[in-house]
Amino acid sequence: MAVKTFQFLVSLFLLLVILINFVQPEPTGHPFKSIQNLVGSQKGQSVSRLHLVKQYLKKFGYLNYDLSSNKVPNQANNDVFDDLLESAIRTYQQKFHLEVTGKLDNHTVNQMTKPRCGVPDIFSDTKHYNSSNSSDGVATADYSFFPGAPKWSKKILKYKIGATVQVAGSENFKSVCIQSFQKWAEVTDFLFKEVTSSADADIEIAFKRLDHGDNHPFDGPRGIYAHGFRPPIGILHFDADETWSSNPGPLELDLESVAVHEIGHLLGLGHSEDHPESIMYPYFDYGKKKRNLQEDDIEGIQDLYGLD
């Protein structure tokens, strides 16, 4: 009897292993990790889960099937590698100085799977890229604004820590905010003042998790780590599922580096793609520190507010 029971349990275990291997659930949230399995995909193919790349490129402004003159039902959600996807990949590759192949090659997929800010790189309703050039025509700075170049009309901005998820590694969060705001105050006319959580404020900062009610859900660790909203919305959220630190180890994100970046969005700056060392570059990595404004960042914010 004991032998038969053991054999039954072994058979049940093997059945469960088979089901786990063959019935893979569709990943939730932003599909950074799934994109890694799509290396080598190119136009004309139909590849399982290719729609995740379409969702990625759509989210960050590179792909918009609504503007297509040859609309196909469910085009944005199917797994067909079509002309518009190839064009979007080419634009993405060009933005980040990759070889422009229109294919999901290794370098492109590696770039896509890096942790990044959740704010789009491109907005379809207006041209938003700006750059300053030297006398010989060589670009010296690269920066961008949100559509319509929104900005604050006041010089004193009040900020508060709102209802927030408690996160390990954020013990010095208030001092990190002070230091991060000060970086922008030094190159602008702004004065940033912290107020209590119950007071009215121009800017509200908090740690949030997954779908947190602003129509821009987070996706868990190692994907989108934060987002800051344009003026005068004044909302900054950090993903509570990331591993944060004020002195990051190899698997931790530097809280101050990300805060300085997102405050740039709160003040009206978009992303800079040309110079990875710029604060407003959309990608960042674990174990790194990037806390000081660069030429792109300073020229951009001063141009936006007429200070240059």
Descriptive notes:
By secondary structure, the chain is α/β, with parallel strands linked by helices. It has two domains: 32-112, PGBD-like superfamily/PGBD (Muramoyl-pentapeptide Carboxypeptidase, domain 1), CATH 1.10.101.10; 133-304, Collagenase (Catalytic Domain) (3-Layer(aba) Sandwich). The protein is built from eight helices and nine strands. It has a five-stranded mixed beta sheet, covered by helices on one side. Strands 1-2 form a two-stranded antiparallel sheet. Helix 6 packs across helix 7. The longest helix is centred in the N-terminal third of the chain and has 21 residues, at 2-22. Residues 13-31 have low confidence and may be disordered.
Q: Sheet bearing the most strands, described? A: 5 strands, mixed
Spatial order of the strands in the main sheet? 4-3-5-7-6
Q: What's the CATH superfamily of the largest domain, by name?
A: Collagenase (Catalytic Domain)
Give me the oligomer status.
single chain
The helix fraction, in percent, is: 25-40%
Number of domains: 2
Number of helices: 8
Q: What is the CATH topology descriptor of the largest domain? A: Collagenase (Catalytic Domain)
User: Element order, helices and strands?
Assistant: HHHHHEEEHEEEEEEHH
Question: What spatial form do the alpha-carbon principal axes imply?
Answer: globular
State Rg: 22 Å
Return the structural class: alpha/beta
- The beta-strand count equals 9
Could you tell me the mean pLDDT? 86
- In percent, how much strand structure appears in the residues? 5-15%
Low-confidence stretches: 13-31
- For the record, give the distance between the C-alpha atoms at the N and C termini, rounded to a whole number: 86 Å
